[in-house]
Amino acid sequence: MRRYETDSPQAAGRVLALAMVVDGNLAQSELAALDSSKILQHIELDQDAFQLLLQELCQDMLTSAFHGEVRIDGAMLDGLLDEIRHPDLRRRLMQAMWRIADADGWLADAEAVLLARASTLWCAETNFSGRVLAEA
């Protein structure tokens, strides 16, 4: 899997791309959710660059396919998520990932795993939960 600079538009875009394809299906509703979230503008990534990231992610995932089945192990997933360190970027990406996962009206197991893992890793390292409770 390619490595990107921490908190770079490419690292953030790849996490979004993963949220779109992790269930094995890229739905038009997910693309619409991505567009309406305005997250690409926030991370300063244009549509062409995002499409390239999506293609590269799929290529990288296919190189690790086992008997035609694409698998992302925990270490690989953690590595992708670890490229995002800034708390505000993590929060915005998490919101966009939920919108993408909800877009087709069905939360696939792989989407749930991705969202749970991002929440666990990012919350533990940035103290999301403590800050949210203190602000409430």
UniProtKB/TrEMBL annotation:
Q: Name one Pfam family in it.
A: TerB
What is the name attached to this protein's record?
TerB family tellurite resistance protein
Q: Which organism is it from?
A: Massilia violaceinigra
Residue ranges of domain Co-chaperone DjlA N-terminal in the record: 14-120
Q: What InterPro entries does this protein's entry cite?
A: DjlA_N, TerB-like
Query: What does the record give as the organism's lineage?
Result: Bacteria, Pseudomonadati, Pseudomonadota, Betaproteobacteria, Burkholderiales
Report the coiled-coil segments.
none
